[in-house]
Amino acid sequence: MYHSGLEAPQGIWWKPVHGSEKVWATIAFAWCLVLFAMMPFWHLRGGQNPSGIRHRVDPVAFRTRVTEFIEEYKVGTDNQIPVVEPPPGSHIYLQGAMWSWTPVLRLKQGAEYILHLSSVDVNHGFSLYPLNINFQVVPGYDYGLRITPHEAGEFQIVCNEFCGIGHHLMVGKVVVVPSDDEQAAGTTVDTAAAAVATEGGSR
Amino acid sequence: MSASMRTCPTTGLRVDKTAENFIKIHAVVATVALLIGGVSALLVMLTRWQAIHLLDVVWFYRLLTVHGMNMLIFFIIFFEMAVLYFASAVLLNSRVPAPKVGWVGFALMLVGTLMVEWMMFSGQADVLFTSYVPLRAEPPFYLGVILFAVGTLTVVGHYFGIIVVAKREKTYTGSVPLVTFGATTAAIIAAVTLLHGALVYIPTWLWSMGYMEIDPQFYRLIWWGLGHSSQQINVAAMVSIWYMLAAFTVGGVVLNEKISRVAFVLYIMFISMASAHHLLVDPGMGPAWKIWNTSYFMYMAVFASMIHGFTVPAGIEMGQRLRGVTQGVFGWLRRAPWGDPGFSSLVFSLTIFGFVGGITGVTFGTEQINIIAHNTLRIPGHFHSTVVAGTALAFMGATYYVIPLIFRREVAFFKLAKIQPYLFAFGMLIFSIAMTFAGTFGVPRRHWDITFAGAPFQVEFSPTVDLVIGVMAVGGLIGILGGAIYIVITVVSVFFGKRLPEGESGLGAHGRGLPLGIIAPPRALTPEDDGEDLEKHALGTTPGTMILVIVFLAAFITYYFVNWKLLSIVWKIG
Questions:
Q1: ipTM of this model?
Q2: Structural domains in chain B?
Q3: Are B359 and B378 in contact (CB under 8 A)?
Q4: CA–CA gap between residue B24 and residue B33 (Å, rounded)
Q5: How far apart are CA B473 and CA B475, in angstroms?
Q6: Which of A18, B141, B253, B278 has the most crowded CB, counting CB atoms within 10 A?
Q7: Mutating which of B374, B436, B462, B559 best tests the A interface, going by the most A Cβ atoms within 10 A?
Q8: Phi first, then psi: what are they for B437, rounded to 5°?
Q9: Distance (Å) from the C-alpha of residue A173 to the closest C-alpha of chain B?
Q10: How close are the terminal C-alpha atoms of chain B, in Å?
Q11: Residues of chain A with pLDDT under 70
């Protein structure tokens, strides 16, 4: 005899399951397996993964690295924020601080870069508009993401993690210039070589 | 003992007066927190609606902090403590041992709440709900949270004490009812959650006074052990209330105790890893950790919710069919008591939680899809459909039964009470869908000014965003109206409502301000009702529910893969 959820079941309640419940539970479980499998599958086949090269970094050291990076590749300023144009295939650095993104990045369409994100104070959120690419920027951690901008244009970096009273003022910029050089378009980062080159060049 | 118990004349349930008092006091404080959270919701929303942009920047973030803490912590947990007393002392006919323990727990919770409220309103804790270090609030804020957590743990311990006493004194026979079982899983998850809370807030408190360092990533990891798991207390409590309301309103049955109980146990076993899906685009963890934990061992908690999403409506359908409502595939729904606010709340809570909250939550909580969802308005869009349209609405529906059964009064303005769940559900549905949609354009959450006035670079959102935010605001206003009506009904009923006569206060009571499930409770089932002929439909014993869950699955699959498609067109990144 059926009872409600308010009544204490008498005797043994470990009983065989209804046919329809069994069918639904099987379908639901199979769907959960698909949900699980999609993540490793996308690592193998998909182009967008949040894996990155992840390190702890001292915020002061990161600030120093960003300063060196700016000195090396600076081509001008935009609203008093330095603009850098690093070569395709290089490690590039973006610093989140209350309340600005530094520097402005000029990138080549179709080239691959390794974008290092970190914060020198509190948590920030990297949100690239209008693409809607979002990453958490945590002080003390360097998040190195391989990116390949495949379309030219101007993009804004919105901060989407609350970082204090000037949070809404924290807008940065990425400019992707159309590729005039087919070779640049095919450039990918040789991680080891690029790392050595940038480290060597800056120290 | 007899002096402290009253016997419900119809059900024969003995209700302990101490338990009643505990239920009342927690429910009252929960409602006050809901009021504070609701007023701040209105002001925050009228600021995000750029056409009005009401608050200045300081008060926007301050009231956003107030809104988060009051809704997600104070309202919900105080209400859940009331649910625990109901599910133990009332449903098990038990007395409440050691009432002092309960009072100490309540007092700690209240003192903690008041400290936190004071710190927030005085501008000493403008750190939002998550208070990510190294953003810093003044130390008493963290201490208030700690006291609240300790108080809650005490009440949870008290709940376990009541269960043990009920068992030892044989106040019930057989196993505990499913609703009590579900509430117990909520209590266990609460204990785990609050330990995470202690683990993160005690060091943070010491850090705020300069005694130690805290790693910001460690903070995010452990904080979400509190922040997300506490939402699973809500889920377990809400699902318990679904079963309860199904029983009260239409005599919903438990199809199979084994299935429903195993699903509750899955919540306990797999939920603490759910913290991971807040950290999918964080630098501190690698892909293996992210996949392993977000899949909560192959989405076993999602699996549990999908089971409850079937068994609750199927129990309703079966309950109706066994009582002779057998017309067609959906006759059980058409002939359901839609004017009973307990029933309409249950249906809307379950539907919106599943179709909007569940589908968006699982999709955004996928490692890679999180790249196009993290910290955008898609996230609050998701959790307003789970916690607000799901949990809060289920609690509202339960209130219409708690008022006559526990407070022993009629529901004031009953005609308004009948439409309240419709207003609230409809408003919150529009609100959360619009909010989620705005997030797909990259509109950030927790943001005072999305015109970015004064920023070095211009960000021009598409005009569609203005429209969608406008729709969101209209939905939000309808939802807030529904919430305000709920608060007015509750306060007026509890303090000024017409008292039910002493001898006539349980199920079967008469009065104009009572839901149908009280006036005319569903007929008790007898062995003769066990219809073997029910098995013959091609879609099983509950064909209507089977069709509904298949529609649900189709929506789920569609939304999930549309998001993979959206992800695949952004820059290559990784």
A1: 0.91
A2: 19-227 (1.20.210.10), 243-524 (1.20.210.10)
A3: no
A4: 14
A5: 5
A6: B253
A7: B374
A8: -65, -45
A9: 7
A10: 66
A11: 181-203
